[in-house]
Write a structure and sequence with these properties.
Helix 10 links the parallel strand 8 and strand 9. This protein has a seven-stranded parallel beta sheet. By secondary structure, the protein is α/β, with parallel strands linked by helices. Helix 4 runs parallel beside helix 11. The longest helix is centred in the middle third of the chain and has 17 residues. The protein is 27% helix and 18% strand. It is elongated and about 80 Å long. Bound molecules: alpha-D-glucopyranose. The site of alpha-D-glucopyranose has 8 residues, from loops. Alpha-D-glucopyranose binds next to loops.
């Protein structure tokens, strides 16, 4: 088992639980075509104001969200308290730009946290470092909606990024002291360009912010987007997004705790609700993504963008339910599992996960084989005691494929699993191997 870099937060539950729900919810649910809309279309505060004025999620019932997450087998969630647009879901004292001042008329964060906790789901808070609404946030030339404003420099002369940093710290203080135990703090993001046009740790006063965080919530898992070096460790989890790492991610040569965050749809890269996007991943692809993460020692944080009326749309519910159907029978190959020891060679078209406590190996079949699964190498030959399909606990007969044994040189230790002709009716079949 690979040892990961030791970090300050408590990641013990995190590397066991493996599967979480990301929620991107804000005013951008109304235009419903990307949470970056303000930046993409270079919309100023005045023109974006209509969404604030009319935001009214009348169907919002976070208990339904929590139920959908629990049924999918998710063990933690991360909610956008504020995204780049600057709008706050909670009743912050630092700005009027918050849910309580919209037709929603209430703190939307608190009931959500309570509903998820009630289902035994741990609480993570996403918080945007970028802020396209705040009057002191210095307009950068890369992402800000006013980047091409003819008076950008003049406007910036009125702005003081350090006052914005004060605001960021004060909001962090609120979030980490008013909602009980927070398990994950997920900042997004830094873009420290070499030519100084970006934003990084100086703009957020990251070291000071980390001190505040550790003082208020010593065990919280902090992500890696505050533009701080990995060593000595300040952050706890590396967060690749919209891609699957090829191997277990390392920092300075050392494997780290990591979590991929992914969207249901492929085309727009939208995390917020996107009405017209048709490029949705199938349940099978999403289950494969979860497995792929765990097979490389990582987690999956899978995103839903709720609608402006406060619901998970039918497509999201369909995917979550499908994942839940798979998890019901196969979560043994996910919870408490990690990358398999290297002596176990991954069979063709498969992913392996391993439960080090129970000493069980899981073969996930991304393609149903013609007839056999071949397990190469001494480790399997010496340690394999029993094999069964996980969905129904039916035995998989093991043997030796005489032909392969005879004709393929250099593969003396080849165990063959004799697979049934018909693929079980599950998104991804799994074989559980009990080891001696
Ligand atoms: C990005 C995007 C953002 C999304 C996030 C999730 O950095 O700016 O919209 O919230 O990734 O990882």
């Amino acid at each position: 088992m690979l040892e990961t870099l030791k970090t300050p937060g408590d990641t013990s539950w995190f590397t066991h639980d493996r599967f979480g729900l990301f929620i991107h919810w804000g005013l951008y649910a109304m235009p419903s075509r990307h949470e970056w809309l303000r930046s993409i279309n270079q919309i100023n505060n005045e023109d974006y104001e209509k969404y604030f004025k009319y935001f009214d999620p009348d169907l919002y019932d976070p208990r339904q969200w929590a139920q959908a997450a629990a049924d999918a087998g998710m063990k933690y969630f991360v909610i956008t308290t504020k995204h780049h647009e600057g709008f706050c879901l909670w009743d912050t004292k630092q700005t009027d730009y918050k849910a309580t001042n919209t037709p929603a008329g209430r703190d939307l964060l608190r009931p959500m946290i309570e509903a998820f906790r009630e289902k035994g789901i741990r609480v993570g808070l996403y918080h945007s470092l970028l802020d396209w609404h705040h009057p002191q946030y210095v307009i950068d030339a890369q992402n800000h909606p006013l980047r091409n404003h003819p008076d950008r420099l003049k406007l910036n002369a009125q702005r003081d990024q350090q006052k914005y940093a004060d605001y960021l710290h004060a909001q962090t203080q609120e979030l980490l002291s008013q909602y009980g135990q927070i398990d994950i703090l997920w900042y997004d993001f830094s873009f420290p360009n070499e030519d100084g046009t970006g934003k990084g740790h100086k703009d957020w006063r990251s070291p000071e912010l980390v001190k505040l965080i550790r003082k208020l919530q010593p065990n919280v898992i902090l992500n890696d987007r505050l533009d701080l070096p990995a060593e000595p460790p300040t952050w706890d989890v590396k967060t690749p997004e919209q891609l699957q790492p090829r191997t277990w991610p390392r920092v300075n040569g050392k494997p780290v705790v990591w979590e991929a965050c992914q969207t249901f749809s492929t085309h727009n890269g939208s995390w917020g609700y996107h009405r017209d996007d048709q490029s949705w991943r199938s349940v099978e692809q999403l289950v494969q993504t979860l497995i792929d993460c765990v097979s490389k020692g990582g987690n999956l944080l899978l995103n839903v963008g709720p609608t402006a009326r406060g619901e998970f749309d039918a497509r999201s519910l369909d995917r979550l339910a499908g994942i839940g159907r798979w998890m019901k029978y196969h979560n043994r190959s996910i919870y408490g599992c990690t990358q398999a020891p290297p002596e176990f060679i991954t069979p063709q078209d498969c992913r392996l996960t391993y439960n080090p406590e129970r000493k069980r190996l899981y073969i996930h079949l991304f393609v149903w084989p013609y007839k056999h699964i071949h397990l190469e190498g001494n480790a399997f030959a010496e340690r394999l005691a029993y094999a069964q399909l996980l969905n129904d606990g039916s035995e998989i007969a093991m043997g030796v494929d005489a032909w392969q044994q005879k004709h393929l040189e250099g593969r003396e230790k080849l165990i063959t699993l004799n697979m049934p002709q018909v693929k079980p009716d599950v998104a991804v079949p799994v074989i559980e191997l009990i080891l001696k």
